[in-house]
Amino acid sequence: MVTIYDIAAKANVSAMTVSRVINNTGKISDRTRAKVKRVMEEMNYVPNQTARSLVLQQTKLLFLLITDIMNPFYTTLARGAEDAAKKHGYRLLFGNSDENLEKEADYVTTILTTRVDGVLLAPAGDPSLPHLESLQRHNVPFVLLDREVPGIQCDIVLGDSKEGARQLVDHLAAAGHRRIAIVNGSSSISSARLRLQGYKEGMKLNELTYSDDYMYETSFGSLNDLSDMDRWLERLDPMPTAILSGNNVLAVEVMRLLKQRNMRVPEDISIVCFDDLGPHTEVEPFLTVAAQQAYQFGYMGMEMLIERIGHRNEKRPWKKIVLPAELLVRRSVRPLN
Amino acid sequence: MVTIYDIAAKANVSAMTVSRVINNTGKISDRTRAKVKRVMEEMNYVPNQTARSLVLQQTKLLFLLITDIMNPFYTTLARGAEDAAKKHGYRLLFGNSDENLEKEADYVTTILTTRVDGVLLAPAGDPSLPHLESLQRHNVPFVLLDREVPGIQCDIVLGDSKEGARQLVDHLAAAGHRRIAIVNGSSSISSARLRLQGYKEGMKLNELTYSDDYMYETSFGSLNDLSDMDRWLERLDPMPTAILSGNNVLAVEVMRLLKQRNMRVPEDISIVCFDDLGPHTEVEPFLTVAAQQAYQFGYMGMEMLIERIGHRNEKRPWKKIVLPAELLVRRSVRPLN
DNA sequence: TTGTACGCGTTATCAT
DNA sequence: ATGATAACGCGTACAA
């Protein structure tokens, strides 16, 4: 490997001079600088970031941990995070926990041993607490995305889940729906809890009755097996006229199930959900959704993180950004009145 | 930061002994090992991968560079790559070139300075040549994905683009279509060239006439502006009855355009394309496609890469994997006979 | 303006 | 079974 010493020898200067040329620090005569640069070119020199990291005690590496790389919400978010990181000269390591605590634990180990400068992460849920405490213990700055974790104080970017869910219920109620069921992610996830809460409040405000039977809790990720949800739906009597889904992936699973049961959307049942389904829809977007600003989650979260890293010694107050969801009315709701 | 010296001091052993415990190398008495382990626990010791990388001359980092993080083909591929990397104890750095040569160049710089152990990449196109030569010059093992680059010998995973395109034409021809147009990615991309070639051969085999007017070349990424493609379509006389799209994203763009023109698919015009649209489709998959094994691209490519890294000194012959595309017949083609 | 000595945290080599 | 020393490639502090 070509090192600064090889350059130094060939250019008849010291390694220090080469270092200064590379980093544009200190005073260097134009002649020396030109000579060193020429030799670097000739020898195809590339600085060794590993050595640099060791001495500088910073890697210029950031880590983004998401929970579902197949979900367009997270890929769009990743795009925002990547753009912001790049803008500030950081590189981005990348992981996908699959809503799985053990995979998340593995990634935390990687994060720690890699000595990344900071972490942007969507935690798997409340049980992620020890993972986050571990990051804190090791002084790794992090910003949470989309989900709060009780017991952790930190910078965070959230969507307005409660308000968004209420809007979805309002929309359904305005269309004349009275029996509205909800399919939601795990109650160990703060955003799922808030969506449920917003749903309940929306029901109450619209003077609709809520029953626990009308709630089905599962995972936010893709489902391998729809039979359990099928049994839930089977038992409902009377059938709901509409279903609110806690996120986009679940909405698709619900539609898959309805299809199996030969029920049409929205003729037989209406559907709304949180999060949009990404730009690459085969046909005109169909689902009525509370769309979140996925790109902004990543972009703003990353800016917060880098800001925090820049002032890691000061104890600035934690920042919390709450992004509103936008109701996009499309064709998955049937007017009943 | 807690180092092996801190552990060593507290455990009354040398740093070397601590290192041996960590890496399970050499002979250590059970008593010493237990003591060292206990101290490591107490002090929350985490090995410093940076220092390790410097001395071992390997980072255990791999890099995946794709061209469109919003495209489900690539996210699925990424998932495969990640799974394979993890299985072998590697971590994965991640970049998104956006089909853009300059972004690609930036990432090559990152790759070089980071001293990753290997790279898995979908090149932006033939002009990526100098970037790949740069990797070769610096002895960075890499595996190409989806696209060949003339002038570069290396391991590679390809889809059978020619055969896939021919199948799509066959399917259209069998449905009675005679005027088939093609919307394709840049001809500087090998897979786009092969798809065009497969299309032409398919036309010939089915005794259909091909005219250059019926070919529209653009970028494989999302289009900001459909007006140019609109003018192309406008000029066609007679109108094609079907369009073959070079990939999934372009197919969606074509459908967006047709929608603007109030043309229905497949009633007014039929559409087929390369690549599927991912698992999260709002409604039942609609497009008839030549589906590629996206996950396998990533998984097998990663295994090849790691295999290559393990034998980087030997000069084994380059491997080339060609994955077949599978025709999935759905509802975007109207039978004309 | 340029150079010397040292340290970042770890592992390999050689010694005991 | 354990330890001392050097080395990985670079940047900081200080000296010249």
From TrEMBL, chains A, B:
The keyword Coiled coil does not apply. This is LacI family DNA-binding transcriptional regulator. One of its GO terms (molecular function) is DNA binding. It comes from the Bacteria. InterPro entries: HTH_LacI, LacI/GalR-like_sensor, Lambda_DNA-bd_dom_sf, Peripla_BP_I. Keywords: DNA-binding, Repressor, Transcription, Transcription regulation. Pfam families: LacI, Peripla_BP_3. The keyword Transmembrane helix does not apply. Gene3D superfamilies: 3.40.50.2300, lambda repressor-like DNA-binding domains. Residues 2-56 form the HTH lacI-type domain. Coiled coil: none annotated.
